[in-house]
Specification:
- The protein is mainly alpha-helical.
- The chain has one domain.
- 43% of the residues lie in helices and 0% in strands.
- The protein contains two helices and no strands.
- The two termini are 14 Å apart.
Length: 70
């Protein structure tokens, strides 16, 4: 969710490698799209950028098809 001071959604890393910002970035993009609070946890190797993109697109598709679930 965005704060009243910034249009970029807030995010934080609870566990894992701080140099891997993939889950934070995904959470921010989904929060911005839905205007809702989003929690993201994943275990995708940082080298699998194509897989991460496919997963993000699938999540967005599910959100469009089943908005009541999100």
């Amino acid at each position: 969710m965005c704060s009243k001071f910034d249009s970029v959604p807030l995010s934080t890393l609870l566990l894992g490698d701080t140099s891997d910002t993939t889950s934070n970035s995904l959470a921010q993009r989904l929060a911005k799209k839905t205007k809702k609070q989003v929690f993201v946890s994943h275990n995708i190797p940082i080298t699998e950028t194509n897989l991460a993109l496919l997963i993000e697109n699938r999540i967005k598709k599910e959100m469009e098809l089943l908005p009541d679930k999100f």
